[in-house]
Amino acid sequence: MKDLISRVEILKVVAHPARVAILDELSKGVKCVSDFQDFLEIRQSNVSQHLSALRHAGLIDYYVDGRLRCYFLKNPFILDLLGIIKKEYEGDLQGPECCPVTKKGKYPGDRKK
Predict the structure, then answer these.
(1) In the chain, where are the structural domains located?
(2) Could you report the per-residue pLDDT of 47-85, keeping only the tens digit for each?
(3) What fold is seen in the domain 2-86?
(4) How far apart are CA 37 and CA 74, in angstroms?
């Protein structure tokens, strides 16, 4: 249960388009703050806030190279999560033919016969 709660917390932190984009870029390799500014089109201060939130959640970390902070992914769950987010699905799931308890009911759309 503890692992499930921590993954739910990760989902809360990741639930922002800029953070998903940051994590996606980091899945390709190490990046510096200026790299994020180029493709996110948001101010450096905003990028730093997102990086700080991701780091505080234990999803990313950084090392210092001269005056640069070089960020990288830390949590392996993120790679699986990004794979699910980017996966393409065809159509919706098939609806039920009827209620599994009463075996009655009318459902919108076509039913299997």
Answers:
(1) 2-86
(2) 999 999 999 999 999 999 999 999 999 999 999 999 999
(3) Arc Repressor Mutant, subunit A (1.10.10)
(4) 21
